[in-house]
Write a structure and sequence with these properties.
about 525 residues, Molybdopterin biosynthesis moea protein, domain 2, Aldehyde Oxidoreductase, domain 3, Molybdenum Cofactor Biosythetic Enzyme, Chain A, flat
Amino acid sequence: MKFGRVILAEAKGAILVHALRLPARWLRKGAVLTAPDLAEMAEAGINDALVARPEPDELNENSAAAAVGAAGVAAHISVSDAFAGRVNLLAKAAGILEIDIAAINALNRIDPDITIATLPAYARVEAGQLLATIKIIPYAAKRDSVARAASALSGALKLHPVCKTTVSLILTRHEGLKPSLLEKGRKAIEARLSRLGLGLAEHRIVPHEATALAAAIKAAKGEIVLLLGAVATADIRDTAPEALRLAGGQVSRFGIPVDPGNLLFIGALGGRQVLGLPGCVRALALNGADWVLERMICGVNVDEDMLVSMGVGGLLKEVPTRPMPRRTSQAQARKFVVILLAAGQSRRMRGQDKLLQKLGGQTMLHHAAEVALKSAASEVLVALPPRHEARRTALKGLELRIIDAPDHGEGMGASLRNAMGHIGADIEGVIVALADMPEITPAHFDALIAGYDPAKGHEICRACDEAGRLGHPILFGRRFFESLSASAGDIGGRDILRDSAEFVLRVPTSGRGAALDLDTPEAWGAWRSEAGAN
């Protein structure tokens, strides 16, 4: 690939290496420069540009990514459109992802210009979930490397969808066992099954005794039979394994190298799989039984080699919950937090505090926070100067978190930096909002959340008004959290918007609210006069 700085006369058709600020717009990096682009650059006083041009034996980044990604398409796996040299492989159904690790490693050795990153092998996934991302690092890749990468990827990913439809649960009891433990066990199993879209076909409770348990195993109707004993199985000859043999079944293994979850056993009866569960399944924390049960439900052969391989990565004691539990919709699975920047000093208000201006009987600050709280965001954080009692009083009664911004005098970047320190690990994105925009509504926030789609490269969503003017609020996906946490000065996320223009989705919103903020007494007066506001 040719790479270097050229005069504008030689730049037509070349790829712009870095985003460029023009008087009326941003010219995003990766853009193929056109004659109008070059004319606009010349008018702005720009004489040259840093560009890249693919060689004849190369494919441009999107074509290369699409060619490799197409090789990853398989049953229940789809591929996204190429964007900024990236394509994503996505699950079309809930299931288990099997990965040929050697093939993925081989692909990543072919050429450093071509990369693939995947979920862990045998990860449980839901429909629509990202399985792998293929990224072309420069703006072009060699055709031969692309062909070899596509060959390596072909067949390397397999998604095993849910194929079992009925599961039976048998619980055992003994004298002194609290009934609440039986109910807790049943609910925990139902929660695990629901992650893959299943429910219990039946459940029954029998005495913790081999004969009674054997009869229940024989009578069970499910394709998979789960046994949860009143006491943990301590040996392959203990009550529950012995009951399976008494029923005419076989026990193939007792104990696996996963902790918690060591004390489970696997067997079969008449073509049905039987899984003796460890006592730790009564809690929802991840354990070895989750791995085995999920694979059984998806028709994966859980043989000796697979069980032995679980030892690497099988220390699960510090994993508090099973990641990505199944929810009824993708929107419910994602959490977004609003960061309302309200630590400014109102310097242009000549002694007045713009956030304490009255708006519909409330202060501007109360109104802005209330609007954010009515959106689909899961939480609202408000960055305030320390000991600013008037602004704190304005927020009384609202269910939000106030974040002190001790270095607020530095600018909004410092407030944003402080707020980012309070973002949880389960948050998908943050929505940065200003507290002095009176015509913002909950619909502005919800439109950003609806537009957010990492699979399409839409990881920054920025509101624009009905005239197309860019403004606030702005949603930033997790990819940008580290950069937001390093914000400084009065810039906030401006550098991120400039340097990551390829990830920005302009989200149209109704009215003028996204681009209207009020910074001076005159602006407030004009707005009140025009809007008839109190």
